[in-house]
Specification:
40% of the residues lie in helices and 14% in strands. By secondary structure, the chain is α/β, with parallel strands linked by helices. Helix 4 packs across helix 6, helix 4 packs across helix 13 (367-387) and helix 12 packs across helix 13. It is globular. 41% of the residues are buried.
Length: 388
């Protein structure tokens, strides 16, 4: 299936992990209630019974598996497989392996065998009851080229996906922003990360067949004086990897719940930018309609969007301006998603440049709620295609 379609849909952030996978990753023994809950998850994604091989694997979970790499690799494959099956069963178009094999987006990058130079500290609270471990950049970043951070996850995804795949990376600006600086300043650390980690990792992903790279940069506008440094870093990264890239590659940038006024002026300066994902649905109304009053969140940015897509700038970037809020269980209907997509299309003027995506953070919703919302997203995009 091509990704060059009207109102292409995808999921942008992470989904809630099934409890049974969390407990198995912690080497805990599983109870009968865990398997009953997992059975409900299996039904949700279209499997009436769970695979007996997976069930047998989960039954082996316990303290004795702590150092069993083979066991946890098998579980890793199943995490990827079921995350992909979950998304494909909703009907969305562009799939990724998800984050069920990752402890946390920052820790996944800095705490692995392929990278040294950032030492993790203790847990701190990010928001609500969510925690992560910050790291301190104690020395120059060193990358072991015989290892990788994302390749195994991507290879597993290729084995099971029946739809186009993207790969999500917690990107260099955010890793630098979320690290406590040691001997380097921010710019030195960011470029050290690009040279040592992101260039070789991206090239390896291209060699493995990746055609859509999503760079997750939630911290991009945290420090306004770092935004121009990010532009320099992005263009430097592109200059080093583009000759290894497939001809149909899409370089995608995701920045969530941020100061977008700092982004509009730099987007045209980002070399090879092919897709953009931002959050807006959380500020929109629940009313139907494709005029500015119900679509107030998107109406606020009519001028900067039209300035970008005015036909003279050459800006032809696929944009996902979140059409599905994630901070409530209130159901966003397919008809409302349709109207949001159609309103955005009236501004941008090309349905192939309008992507359908939720705001970032569906992991805050239950898997049942997330499945319904993503199913509505797929249906809403089809309604929008039919409408034009």
């Amino acid at each position: 299936m091509s990704t060059d379609i009207n109102f292409l849909t995808h999921e942008v952030g992470s989904l809630k992990k099934p409890n049974i996978f969390i407990k198995a990753a912690r080497n805990e023994e599983l109870a009968e209630t865990d398997f009953k809950e997992f059975q409900e998850f299996s039904k949700l994604i279209g499997q009436q019974t769970t695979d007996p091989d997976l069930v047998e694997l989960l039954k082996q979970s316990g303290p004795n598996q702590k150092d069993n790499t083979e066991y946890h690799n098998k579980l890793g494959f199943w995490r990827v497989k079921l995350n992909i099956k979950f998304k494909e069963s909703t009907g969305i178009d562009l799939i990724d392996a998800g984050e069920w094999t990752r402890r946390e987006m920052y820790q996944h990058i800095v705490d692995n065998d392929a990278l040294s130079g950032i030492n993790l500290l203790g847990h701190v609270r990010s928001f609500d009851y969510n925690f992560y471990k910050p790291g301190i950049a104690s020395s120059n970043i060193v990358y072991n080229n015989n290892k990788s951070i994302h390749i195994q996850e991507y290879e597993w995804a290729k084995q099971v996906a029946t739809k186009p795949l993207k790969v999500c990376l917690t990107a260099f600006n955010t890793v630098a922003e979320w690290s406590l600086l040691g001997k380097q300043n921010f710019e030195e650390l960011m470029f050290n990360l690009i040279d040592e980690v992101f260039i070789p990792e991206t090239i390896k992903l291209f060699e493995a067949g990746a055609t859509w790279i999503q760079m997750d940069e939630p911290a991009l506008t945290t420090h306004p004086d770092h935004v121009d440094v990010f532009v320099d870093g992005w263009n430097y990264w592109i200059s080093k990897v583009k000759f290894h890239a497939p001809s149909d590659v899409v370089y995608s940038l995701h920045n969530c719940f941020s100061n977008y006024d700092l982004l509009w002026p730099i987007l045209q300066d980002l070399d090879e930018l092919g897709a953009l994902t931002l959050e807006f649905a959380n500020r929109d109304t629940w009313d139907l309609g494709i005029n500015p009053q119900p679509r107030k969140a998107f109406a606020e940015i009519i001028k900067p969007l039209r300035d970008l897509y005015d036909g003279e700038t050459g800006f032809k970037v696929k944009s996902a301006l979140g059409v599905l809020p994630v901070h409530t269980n209130h159901e966003t209907t397919a008809e409302l998603i349709r109207d949001r997509l159609l309103f955005i299309n009236e501004i941008i003027g090309d349905p192939k440049l309008v992507l359908g995506a939720p705001d970032c953070g569906l992991r805050q919703r239950s898997l049942a709620v997330s499945h319904q919302l993503l199913s509505n997203l797929a249906e809403g995009a089809q309604l929008a295609r039919d409408a034009i």
